[in-house]
Design brief:
The chain has 432 residues and is α+β, with helices and mostly antiparallel strands. Among the domains are: 179 residues, no CATH class; 93 residues, no CATH class. It contains 13 helices and 14 strands. Strands 1, 2, 3, 4, 5, 6, 7, 8, 9, 10, 11 and 12 form a 12-stranded mixed beta sheet that branches. Helix 5 runs parallel beside helix 11. It is globular, with a radius of gyration of 24 Å. The relative contact order is 0.16.
Length: 432
């Protein structure tokens, strides 16, 4: 089969699977919007409609979003289940470990109008030069799944401008909403130091999930208390000796070279099993890491990682935590090249619905990179022959191949299945 036939085959199966969580009367319109998002890099609804040969009035597509006909949580659950099934099929011959790695992060989208939903002043953690630290923006919390050293966004939620729903509560609700899909799997959750709080970690541990995250370097850590026979009254001690900087410096340091963040890096590690005060005395494996700066010839700033899986060694923790960074380039692509900066709706629920459709479309494009081989690089970008295939290249090929198709013709209302149209779309974008 040709590359185009394989893409049609897989997309037909995947979209048909996603249609099971869409109301029957809305499935045809949803197919057109989802396919329009896959071949349109801009975030406006009109761009997605204009990229296809629509068969309905334009108000039909807007009403599908505005009236809440699409349940975003159910769509996210189906997308996560689809991603896990694809990962299992690809890795089954190599031995699938039945471990699902989730990533939690947040990002902001700049806004110029206070009328945008949840548009308030936020602190910009990027700390870019010549830019203010506090900006008018929308704050999003995203949950993704880490697969093949990449992170695929699954579910996004907008932080409201008022009320008591902060980023920690939203992150917990994202995991809770997708928890039943993860039954039977060992779930590992990765996030940065901002989310390393007891209000998030303890509920995850109650769900039998493990956590690997960066923590503040001054986190209060203690050793196990020494058993001393005494007749003094009171409860037994919970904490032993505190792990001060002097105690950490006295630990055995191991220098090794690991492939981290896309390159080989020399790193110095110290680790120990300790108790964390802010987690109510929970035992964790604490790893202090320092990267060697080749230009300066000195060791860099010390970082602290905490892993609730105490049976892991320091090297394994250092190799697993960088999988969290796979979500960072995905957020950049969504904002800059997938039109998330252009999303504009009048209410928070409608905005989250359209965001979910865009995110699902991008996840399907990313999955094609790892499932379908023999990408026609010569026809799309001949100057990149020999380079890795990316989701952006696949999306560019889909725009050249499928722009202008009437996708509703591929939806069978009787069987409720979707079969990707075969005929070419806009003749101006054909290539040979």
């Amino acid at each position: 089969m040709s590359y185009a036939d394989l893409v049609r085959h897989h997309l037909s199966l995947w979209i048909t699977f996603l249609l099971t969580v869409i109301k029957p009367r809305s499935r045809g319109t949803f197919v057109e919007l989802l396919c329009g998002c896959m071949i349109s890099p801009e975030g406006w609804v009109t761009r997605a409609i204009g990229a296809i040969t629509r068969s309905k009035h334009w108000t039909t597509y807007y009403k599908l979003i505005e009236r809440g006909s699409i349940r975003t949580l159910a769509l996210a659950q189906a997308t996560l289940l689809l991603a896990i099934k694809i990962q299992t099929d690809v890795e089954e011959p190599k031995g699938f470990t039945k471990t699902v790695t989730l990533v939690i992060d947040d990002f902001i989208i700049m806004r110029q109008s206070e009328k945008a939903p949840a548009s308030i002043i936020h602190y910009d953690h990027a700390n870019r030069k010549n830019r203010p630290k506090y900006v008018l923006s929308q704050n999003w919390v995203v949950l993704g799944i880490s697969m093949w050293n990449h992170a695929f966004p699954i579910l996004c939620r907008l932080v409201p401008e008022n009320g008591n729903r902060n980023k920690l509560k939203i992150a917990e609700s994202l995991v809770r909403g997708l928890a039943f899909v993860l039954r039977g799997y060992h779930v590992r959750v990765l996030f940065d130091s901002w989310f390393m709080r007891a209000r998030l970690v303890l509920p995850l541990l109650a769900r039998k999930m493990s956590v690997i995250a960066q923590a503040r370097i001054d986190t209060a850590l203690f050793l196990e208390p020494q058993e001393v026979k005494t007749h003094a009254r009171g409860r037994p001690r919970i904490y032993g000796q505190k792990l001060t900087r002097e105690v950490v410096d006295a630990l055995t340091a191991t220098e090794t070279t690991l492939h981290l963040y896309g390159k080989e890096q020399k790193v110095r590690l110290r680790s120990i099993v300790a108790k964390v005060r802010f987690l109510k005395g929970l035992k964790v494996c604490a790893v202090w890491s320092e990267f060697f700066n080749d230009k300066k010839g000195t060791w860099g700033k010390r970082h602290l990682l905490l892993a609730t899986e105490t049976n892991l060694d320091a090297k394994t923790i250092m190799l697993r935590y960088p999988k969290r960074w796979g979500i960072e380039p995905q957020i950049h692509i969504l904002k800059r090249w997938w039109g998330i900066n252009n999303l504009w709706q009048q209410s928070r629920s409608v905005l989250e619905c359209w965001m979910q459709i865009r995110v699902t479309a991008w996840t399907l494009v990313q999955l094609l990179v790892h499932v379908v081989e023999d990408f026609p690089m010569m026809a799309v970008a001949p100057w990149r022959i020999g380079q890795p295939i990316t989701g952006g290249l696949v999306a560019q090929w889909m725009r050249m191949e499928f722009t202008g198709l009437q996708f509703l013709d591929g939806f069978d209302r009787k069987s409720q299945k979707f079969s990707f149209p075969v005929e070419r779309g806009d003749p101006r974008l054909r290539f040979r």
